[in-house]
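Note to self: the last two entries modelled the partners one at a time, which told us nothing about the interface. This time every component goes in together.
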Amino acid sequence: MPRYWLMKSEPSEASIDDLVAAPGQTLPWTGVRNYQARNFMRDDMRSGDGVLFYHSSCPEPGVAGLARIAGKPEPDATQFDPANDYFDPKSSRDKPRWVQIDVALTRKTRLLPLREMRAAPELATMRVLATGNRLSITPVTPQEWRAVLRLLAR
DNA sequence: GCCAACGTTGGC
DNA sequence: GCCAACGTTGGC
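The predicted structure of the combined assembly is written out below.
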């Protein structure tokens, strides 16, 4: 049974165009430093799960493409690298704290702006739209997934 | 740049 | 375990 996720990325760090241009059109999802989001990756994601690739903290926030989970969670390489912005001195290779997982492009879509998502009654239940939500990874229901696809097709 | 909302830290 | 202080997120 496929599951669905929304994953936020700042386009200045990793945009949908970066995913299009990546080797194998696949990027390791690194840098998650929130336990709830980590637990989604570590415990709940399965290869083949659908992903809404969302651009955040940018002039036009919204869904920018469709992707899917590939492979399985691994220790996030950036946590061990002191030169990396996401270095975590409290983590160790023996007991890694953070995980990454590969995300593979399905297709780039038109931008579905946050504004349009908020205006769509069928998306009112989406976690990412909930007041105060800051999670960079949120589950998406099959109904929400289908509704997003319908909006993208317009 | 502002600021609301939320997560994390650390003293007690 | 409480909770104040602080840091981060992310839309606007």
